Amino acid sequence: MASIDLDGRRIEIREGDTVASALFRAGVRTFSRSFKYHRARGLYCLSGDCPNCLVNVDGVPGVRACSTPATDGQRVRREHGWPSVERDLLSVLWRLDRLFPVGFYYKMLAHPRRAWPAAEPIVRRVAGLGRVDRAALPPHREARHLHPDVLVIGAGVAGLAAACAAAKRGEQVLIADEGEPAAKLPPGAARTRAEALLARLRARENAVLLERATAVGVYEGPLVPIVGPDLVSIVRPRRVVVATGAVEQHGVFAGNDLPGVWLGRGAVRMAAVHGIAPGRKAVVVGGSPETAAHAEALARAGLEVVAVERGHLLSAHGRRRLSSVRVQTAGGSERIRCDTLVLSLGLVPRDGLLRQADGIPAVVGAGDVVLPGCSPDLAAESGEKAALTPATGERAEDVLPEPASSGVLCLCEDVKVSALELAWQEGFRSTELLKRYATVTMGPCQGALCHGHLRSFVRARGGGTTAAATTSRPPVRPITLADAAAGVHIQIDQRTALHERHLAIGATMEWIGAWKRPERYGDLLAEYWAVRRGVSIMDVGTLGKLMIGGRDAREFLERMYPCTVSTIAPARVRYALLLNESGFIIDDGLICPLDDGRYYCTLSTGGAEQGEAWFRNWAQYWGRRVDIVNRTQALGAINVAGPRAREILAPLCDAPLDNEALPFMRQLEAVVAGVPCRIIRLGFVGELSYELHHPASRSEELWDALLAAGDVVPHGLEVLRLLRLEKGHILIGQDTEFDTTPAKVGLQALVGADKGDFVGKLEHDRLSAIPLDRKLVGLRFPGAAAPVEGAPLLVDGTIVGHVTSSRSSPVLEHGIALAWLRQHHGAFPGTVAAGGLSATVVNGPFYDPEGARLRA
Amino acid sequence: VSFLVLCPHCGDRPYTEFWWGGELPQPLPGQASTGDEEFARVWLRRNAAGTQVEQWYHADGCKRWFVASRNTVDNRFDGID
Q1: What ipTM was estimated for this complex?
Q2: Backbone CA torsion sign across A558, A563, A567, A572
């Protein structure tokens, strides 16, 4: 016999059972404990709209028992009760309600400031709906993209009629239902109609039915994500028909949340679909066209039925489950003993998705969601119409006629009417404010039951426009984070080919834009002195690298760069800036002409994609014959730097590297340790250094060969920042701002003075005529200390700038910085104070100003 | 936001594959006849609530730029060059 396990107890299941129906048949009445007060909660809506049957199924919390098919071997746990959901001592909180008024965590735990951090773990343990197993890795979920002509959400009579009508016209139709279509309807006209439509639809080849697939949101486009049991469908239909139906109206009165209180359609579903009598004696509170049918269905299931008019129900009573109700009579009031109270009060639209679609064309409602309580005939007609005429705007209002005066208005978040009254007195006087303050409508049901009550509460207090519907947002049904991440495969960090090598020698990695780079390997000073006194290597494979060829390559680059390009001979390299049309620096890098007329251009780390887009835009605009290949990922680069760089590189290299063969700012192609390299001699760190650009597939063997060459220590980013600062080299983005011109950072020499047109020339020329008010300068501090980056510069108590980069220099034995400095009383100050230290303003590199070490 | 962008080379693709290149400057580069026009071209934007002519770059596709006119209110495209 098939069975499921409930908290260690074996429970038999039958064909067609949901988890909820199996548990209910076995006598379970308390399914969960409420969010705040730990009230016992039992089955209520049976349509997936309320939070009462949320249980943990096979380790997943927050699963709706009423919408989950029971399968053999399932492990069901009721959560959030202490010691158990059946006997929960924390239900005493209901009696201590006065201690926890609405918003208590804002009021009572605000002072002293330590109060909330101390209380938070307790509050979090006590409140809530379940626990996530943090050790369990969520499964990867796949996503697919679908592009039907028409998407129909909800396979009731209206939805099926819409799908059939669209399919008949030859359109591709996708119809999704969160359960099995027709299965939750009791026998009757609606079910017969739905089954007939379903048979017609299934005969159509151009219609696809997704079962147990929940549409969780409507985005512009329109785009509708549908979470199914196996995968998530991302649907971009031309038109959407929302046929999500209606929910039985939630009843709000004292005792309304006791187990044994049911919504009409829920009780009937238990009796007529699952064949289980919800109790022995039912009081049916009526007033809707369906009331008589509900009473009849319950009587047929063997219940003794007492009918009570809407408005005559006063309160429900019982300990842990319903035992009686009090109703109004001609002479006063009367108590009726019963174990079941059925609320058959009419329908409110289940319109969360439709409200999300406000302003999105081509989304239309059909059936109960726009005509709550309509007949099957009317629903079918409405569906057909919606499928054929994409008219919009039809909406049903969900303001309820009379406001509730007591009871639990929001079951999910345990918000009582009295809590809303207090919040109203405190000044939260609109639906949106009450929503945020009291969290009403913000639970798992997303207002499916309580939204109309909230609106009537506000309207009854004279709120006109403040009683407007609150904004509906995705997801309308609970989803897991795995669902939200479905289909995501990308690795979120970019890595160079040497990533594993760095980790293997203990590097601390750091985010640089999308890249992960080694921050340090261990001893920073050892890394530093290796560059300044010995030899060191660094992975600079993150540099942007573009290969630019084609007939017009030279002319094109001449117009892209502010420096002269055509005069750079092959074998030479030039450091260059890129300007935008405003004349501001957007990136820097090298221009390396190749023998065959192509150019190899480097960009800063993180500048590759933007740089490539920038180059392509202009190449296209000018209609130039230029081929641009982004080789950033394909090529690795390792910088070999330090006074001993040549000494260790020369024996590995098949070409001479002496000063005559490869002087400063030159390049050549050679083979190093068997790996073909473009060797570029330059000096960002201020020492003799060679950048080896090579195929990334061979980075590891080159790296290993260099490390094995004798006493070679790699250095990371932290040391690089210090080394380049000693040379006064700027980092684009750190030392520059969005409106930095070459003149402001002392790089005016990189703009060709008598050059023809280039991007940014007009603005550059115009800005050059304006005297500089601000510029980037060097600061030299007398002692080893340096102020923090960002520290303001002061002259006589006036702020005249700020520090952009600062370090203590080991080789110079004093603090250094780059800083933006403003004119003060018509001149740039020569001394400033920063971080409590006095500094001298200097120009040019701090270290080796003549560049002798670069040319060594 | 979740709209599709009609790339003239690749067809309808999700907007996440594209970079938005901002309003198309008017007049186009190199076509300003006065200093004032050049200034307006580089610096001034309409920032319209409505139809706006823009540059788009299909970064995760054909890597080509195109000009499209988009309604900034509802993200509908009504013309592509």
Answers
A1: 0.96
A2: negative
